[in-house]
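Hi V.,

You were right to ask for the full record rather than a summary. Here it is.
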Amino acid sequence: MSNTLLQPYLFFNGCCEEAIEFYRTALGAEVLMTMRYKDNPDTPPPGMVPAGWENKIMHASFKIAGNTVMASDGCGEDGGFHGFSLSLALPDEAAVNRAFAALAAGGQVKMPLTKTFWSPCFGMLADRFGLGWMVTVAEETHS
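Predicted structure:
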């Protein structure tokens, strides 16, 4: 199972391009690829893609902190991210403070950054797209 991967695939209900740009600016996300519905080599079944969505993103992938995230505008299903959060572990408190502030812009802080028994700096928020984040100082590794 050495070729097995688990990667989040996020559906942004029409605002995927805006979300990718937000993560590029806020977290330094590196865009690996984007494919728009109009570039699909196969004709989708009638009614699958909303009218006017030809320039929306059918599939994209980008890296945040070395991890690949996939995303799409979806096919018009209800948006929303419920029941999970992305956990972002950064090397120090300064990096946590920067990322937390950037992700919180236009979003909602659920737990302000604070010291916890497991981290000198941890906080939770939902970004402006409703995606949950837990931001923390990475656990130190001991040799």
